[in-house]
Amino acid sequence: MAQFSRLRVPDASSRAGETSPSPSVAQTTAEFDLDSNFELDDAEGDLQFREAELGGGQAYELKSLVNPTGKKDDGGEDDSFSSRRRMSDSTVSSFQLYTPDEECAVVRKFDRRVVLFVALLFMLSFLDRSNIGNARIAGMDEDLQSQPPWDGWYEWTLTAFYIAYIAFEWMSLLWKLIPAHIYVSMIVLSWGLTAALQSVAVSYPMLIFFRVLLGIGEAGFTGIPFYLSFFFKREELAFRTAIFISAAPLATTFASSLAWLIINFAEYGPIAPWRLLFLVEGFPSVLVAVAAWHIIPDTPETAPYLTARERKVARLRLRHQKPHQTRGEKKAPGLKLHEVVVILCDPMAWLTAAMFFLTNMAYSSLPVFLPKILHEMGHSRLESQGLSVPPYFLAFLFVLLTAHLSDRFQIRSGPIIFHALASAAGYAALAFSEPFGLPPPLRYLAVYPAAIGFFNVVTLTIAWSINNQPSETLPAAAHIDAPGTVRETASSRFPKQDTEDELFSTTLHTDKTIAAFLTLYKRPSAASGENMIREVKALLTLRHGVNGYPNVSHGGIVATILDEVIGLVFPVNKINGLIPDGAYMTAYLNTQYVRPVQTPQTILVVATVKKVEGRKYWIEGVIEDKDGQVLAKAESLYVKVKEKL
């Protein structure tokens, strides 16, 4: 069994008035540190844990640790909590059910296997939708033009794609209903085939039909940022979204370079350059769709390249970011329509949607019109294809840099405002270049802030909207919500539908009262001969909401906490099959107040079974501060209630 060492709890004075993130079960403001000379036994599963429901709560049991002497723990009593050792107040260590190195290893695997692959998919998606601009100046307009010619055909071809794209964007909800590896494979295959079939179009109406199908296929891919939120924390999401979105300027760079090569070498071939362009750039998506079936994991727990231990780490690291769920409540899979209604009725959602809509006007139009704009500046067709490359390559680099800084400093609005203004300035220069007589070199330079700006705004807006979702359905529904935060406090007490434990699971479960409640115990080993768990320890983070006097907890709350932790002895033993099921109730509780319980601070509460006679259990409870000083203690008698005949 595990040996805990060096209990440290944050000093009350050092945390007073401090705003900290809401704690979670996996990592709270009450923290432990294992001495540096502990070694993990990889052969026995490294640092492992067991999660068990406790009549309203959960407990974690750490095991498979080697003690400092190199000998296996014999399962004897662990008195490290009551060692009374004084520790430096300046050091607050980290209690986690996984190590930082383990977390980094999991994140690196997701970066390599998930992020880079979906970035490749998005690059192919953007390539297939935007290469029509390159095809236009490669002879497509002349070959498909009707008689008599009409200048509106090309514009309607572009519009048809976005009408279908917008009309079917609800398909992002299907991420909640269809396993990701199946869904992604289907939509990638659909747009790949459609993109390649554009090469056989003999008229603009036929091309418009293919563009509608392409828009439907690619509309289903809009849920990728939501999919990434399955694997990454909120503060990690912007950079991963940036890698994904940066595939768009990279795709445009690639499309322009490839278009230059195809046009250059297909001038005298049997296939028209623009037809070969659609075929060459569309068919790779068909091949990648097959690979997506095997590469895309549905959830972190189903990733085949993770070990069993890494799957647990992947789940635990995101635990505190999930919405509060009551004990015994099984989270129903699929779409929650009431949450879709909530997001549609939220005015902030519509404001964010307006931001995204306006940004997308620039995001989607420049790639399909830039080759024509450059051609009208006086450049040849080949020169126009080549000059389209540098602005998008710089946009690719700036997206990664901006997103990295945004994640590092946890700021979204500032970069969005800056890049939106830069993009608007670039577009304004292009719009007024002719009236003001700007020479072609200056007009070309205006393309750079326009391209760099809108790609950054799109990236950060997506990350911002995903960050602010309190559940999985809301980002799937719209990718948008009001800027703000969701309370992420998680205790070890969860409400039941029959209102049992309602006091601690709901009434006192707030950021201002008891912000964190973590329960720990150690099961007796077979060698110890012990027939029950005789000691339960709990860490509670107290806030000012429990005060009776300034910065001092109310005496009634102190007694209630002692009674609650002492009472945890019974569900802990029941779920381990060590005592009979049934109701165990307090017969008396004698509380002695030794020192004021100051707030805010994290306290250690230890409940110890002293004697058992039939249905009677004598249990003592002690509250200690970070230095091991006793603040309060209690003697109690619990009795198992007789069943009525």
Strand percent estimate: 5-15%
Radius of gyration: 31 Å
- Strand order across the largest sheet: 2-3-5-6-10-11-12-9
What is the CATH architecture descriptor of the largest domain? Up-down Bundle
Q: Summarize the amount of helix as a percent range.
A: 40-55%
Domains counted in the coordinates: how many?
2
CATH topology of the largest domain: Growth Hormone, Chain: A
Describe the secondary-structure layout:
Elements lengths: L11 H4 L23 E2 L7 E6 L4 E6 L1 E2 L33 H31 L1 H13 L8 H15 L12 H18 L6 H16 L4 H5 L5 H12 L1 H20 L6 H23 L12 H9 L20 H8 L2 H30 L4 H7 L1 H21 L3 H19 L8 H28 L5 H6 L23 H6 L6 E8 L13 E8 L4 E3 L2 E2 L1 H13 L1 H7 L8 E10 L7 E13 L2 E9 L5 E11 L5
Parallel strand pairs: 3-5
Antiparallel strand pairs: 1-4, 2-3, 5-6, 6-10, 7-8, 9-12, 10-11, 11-12
